[in-house]
Write a structure and sequence with these properties.
The complex is a heterodimer of chains A (197) and B (125). Chain A has 197 residues and is an alpha/beta fold. Chain A is built from 5 helices and 7 strands. In chain A, strands 2-3-4-1-5-6-7 form a 7-stranded mixed sheet, sandwiched between helices. In chain A, strand 6, helix 4 and strand 7 form a beta-alpha-beta unit. The longest helix of chain A has 21 residues. The N terminus and C terminus of chain A are likely disordered. Chain B is mainly alpha-helical. Chain B has one domain. The longest helix of chain B is centred in the last third of the chain and has 18 residues. Chain B starts with 7 loop residues before the first helix and ends with a helix. The chains are: A alpha/beta (197), B mainly alpha (125). The interface between A and B is large, with 52 and 47 residues. Chain B: InterPro entries: DUF742 (IPR007995). Chain B: It holds the Pfam family DUF742. Chain A: GO terms for molecular function: GTP binding; hydrolase activity. Chain A: InterPro entries: Gliding_Motility_GTPase, Gpn, P-loop_NTPase.
Chain lengths: 197, 125
């Protein structure tokens, strides 16, 4: 292990990987990560009250949300993390933390189940987090034309839509490169989707 | 006596926080991707603290680890790891390197430079 100077600015960055259940988020993370994807869990307690006046007992529910993530060492002092969103989009409390400070997001789409990604797209647009659409072609076949998908998802003409094979390291690498290039282009154009504070 | 099943989830919630003596609020907000490094003091004294603290000090002494990695390796929820790491940072045993958030502060230059570094790093993969 190299010895870093103490005054070196050690830092990290993250990219969010979203998409419906079973669409290939962890596969994509694992194809490019230098570690086997790890799982981190968050616990949330919610107390539902005032539902029934006769019931004086607060009904507490505890929810555990799991997120898979991977790691790419860019430099000895810069590490990039890829965080998969929780499978169920109802766990919004975790999404807030996931997108905070993120470079951008990859929304993986299975064209046979387009609607599965609507919630993620809505969320990123609302938070003004730049994202791209990655059509995962599991079987090497693309089931829909890219323009049809763009129309069906009603995403802006600038939003990149790429095809990918989430199992392929090279393919995933290209998806991430396209995303970062897109974010850089937007910053330089001053379009500032969620950037530039 | 009838078992009150409604209280079971509460027990499940309390147990993970036993290592923090029940505290759920960290002394320091730490992002899940923040990098944690054992300090020289942590190398000397970290191993003599609690079992979890010693494991964290050992883990982050050989390689930079994010809070999320610490939580995953320790098999503890993110919130529990955050309380432990924040305490150890306050005691000078760990250094926490916050992420270069793109959207927050730092100015455009910092964000653009970071993005360019990430981009060239990805191209080198």
């Amino acid at each position: 292990m190299s010895i870093r100077q103490p005054n070196n600015r050690v830092t990290s960055a993250k990219i969010v990987i979203a998409g419906g259940f079973g669409v290939g988020k962890t596969t994509l993370v694992g194809s490019v990560s230098e570690i086997t994807p790890l799982t981190t869990e968050a616990i949330m307690t919610s107390a539902s009250e005032g539902v029934d006046d006769n019931d004086m007992v607060q009904d507490k529910t505890t929810t555990t949300v799991a997120m898979d993530f991977g790691r790419i060492t860019i430099d000895s002092d810069l590490i990039l993390y890829l965080f998969g969103t929780p499978g169920q989009t109802r766990f919004w409390f975790m999404w807030d933390e996931l997108v905070r400070g993120a470079i951008g997001a990859v929304v993986i789409v299975d064209t046979r189940r387009l609607a599965d990604c609507f919630a993620a797209i809505d969320f990123f647009e609302h938070r003004r987090l730049p994202y791209l659409i990655a059509l995962n072609c599991f079987d090497g076949r693309q089931h829909h034309d890219v323009n049809d998908v763009r129309e069906a998802l009603a995403v802006s003409p600038n939003t990149p839509i790429v095809t990918t094979d989430a199992r392929s390291r090279e393919s995933t690498k290209q998806v991430l490169i396209t995303l970062v290039e897109y974010v850089l282009t937007m910053r330089r154009a001053g379009a500032g989707a969620g950037v530039g504070a | 006596m009838v078992v009150d099943r409604d209280h079971e989830p509460t027990g499940a919630l309390v147990r993970p926080y036993a290592v923090t003596r029940g505290r759920t609020r960290p002394r320091l907000e730490i992002a899940m991707e923040a990098l944690v490094e054992t300090t020289a003091r942590g190398r000397l004294n970290g191993l003599s603290s609690g079992r979890e603290q010693a494991t964290i000090a050992g883990m982050c002494g050989t390689r930079l680890q994010s809070l999320a990695e610490i939580a995953a390796h320790m098999r503890m929820p993110l919130g529990v790891a955050r309380v432990l790491v924040a305490d150890m940072a306050a005691d000078g045993l760990l250094a926490v390197h916050e992420p270069s958030g793109i959207g927050d502060g730092g100015g455009d230059l910092v964000g653009t430079e970071l993005l360019e570094r990430v981009l060239s790093g990805l191209r080198r993969l």
